[in-house]
Specification:
By secondary structure, the protein is α+β, with helices and mostly antiparallel strands. Helices cover 24% and strands 41% of the residues. It has one domain: START domain (Alpha-D-Glucose-1,6-Bisphosphate, Chain A, domain 4), CATH 3.30.530.20.
Amino acid sequence: MAHAESETTVSRPPEDVYAYLADGLNNAAWRSGVQAVALKSGAAGELGAIYSQTLTGPGGRPIGGDYQITIAEPGHLLAFQVVAGPARPAGQYRLTAVPGGTTVRFSLDLQPKGLMKLAGPLIARTMEAEVAQLAKLKSVLEAA
């Protein structure tokens, strides 16, 4: 299983951080690989909502990366499952209130299957780069 995790502390309350993360339309503002995102079904940021994403794939070509919100606990936990695209990791944002802000822990997990197992090292590097973007999330939220 491939696993990647990163953590940062944002100088904003957990409710604000959660609301920003739950609205997938904000993804392009802090995740560099997101070319386009739209709410495909459900209510924005709520359990079961599906977001359609176009991501930058190998060689810069666009690939799908639609995801569905699988756990929605405002101010505490937001989890999702990628439901379209070549790699379909599960991810979560775990929020913890700390003095002066919120600690955000972003993790991704993927169980490669079939030929995808051969791309294990590439997948691991891609997942590490994705969770490392929390630094950008911090700067975007603290500038708002």
